[in-house]
Amino acid sequence: MADASSLTDLVGAELSEPVDPRVTAMASALAAQYPGSARAVLFYGSCLRETRLDGLMLDFYLIVSDYGDAYARRWMAFANRLIPPNVFPFQHDGLMAKYAVLNEADFHRLNGPETRNVSVWARFAQPSRLVWSVDHVATARAVAAVARAAPTLLAAAGAAAGEDALDWWRRAFSLTYSVELRAERTHRAQSVVDADPQRYRDFTAPAAAAIEPGVRSGGWARRRAEGKALSVARLAKASLTYAGGIDYLAWKINRHAGTQIEIKPWQRRWPLLAALTLVPRLIRGGAIR
């Protein structure tokens, strides 16, 4: 019978699968920017399925030991602690990326059912790769944290009578996509599962067996209200911490929603105001949901 240990084994094997050597080199270069505090770097997102990386925006999570050690400026550590994660751009060897920063404690917590915030566990219930770690202890902690994500996702969605395994995953991801401000089209949640159905079949029984006792499904109306507000707060924060963040926001929405947003000079000078005024207009127009 499937159990939590088999899920940890599955996650560990998946995280260790090889990636493009340029991704590994980029992760090492990223970790080198945080000497003494970098613990692990995870690669995730749609670029995992791409063979050509040029012109794409790669996605990483940088896991650090402590926010105070990671930043020279105290306000950056405070911002990361207050509304995790901080997100930054990064370039290396011709490739572009953005990376989110979490400490080990937050990464473990945000992958689990103790948080209604779907942002981390919804992403790490999907495939990811551990592309750099400082030592075997950091590797084990990353595996343990990621192994919490899939049970959290399935528990939050709740099992439905007569629903097959893949439909459970599809419905679960659809629920999480409804919580955040998303530029992707409505079929994206289904395509995540359909890109590798066997992977989700293999994960279903171990993930279901690893659901923590007492965890209840539901609460999605509250998650949506909190999630939309948190998405706006993160966008506002990113306008202060992410160089060129307003341009990235426009690029991502144009790419996923088929819009033609152009950022004006005043919006680059005042990115916080631009983000706060742009988001409501995009919601009304249906570009993001």
Task: Explain what this protein looks like in three dimensions.
The chain is α+β, with helices and mostly antiparallel strands and 289 residues long. It has 2 domains: 4-217, Beta Polymerase, domain 2; 221-285, no CATH class. Helix content is 55%, strand content 13%. The chain contains 15 helices and 5 strands. The chain has helices at 4-15, 21-32, 67-70, 74-82, 104-110, 119-124, 136-146, 149-157, 165-179, 188-194, 197-209, 220-241, 245-257, 265-269, 271-285; strands spanning 38-44, 57-64, 86-92, 95-103, 128-133. It has a 5-stranded mixed beta sheet with strand order 3-4-2-1-5, sandwiched between helices. Strand 3 (86-92) and strand 4 form a beta hairpin. Helix 8 (149-157) crosses helix 9 (165-179). The longest helix is centred in the C-terminal third of the chain and has 22 residues, at 220-241. It is globular and about 55 Å long. The termini are far apart.
Supply the key terms.
13% strand, 289 residues, Beta Polymerase, domain 2, 5 strands
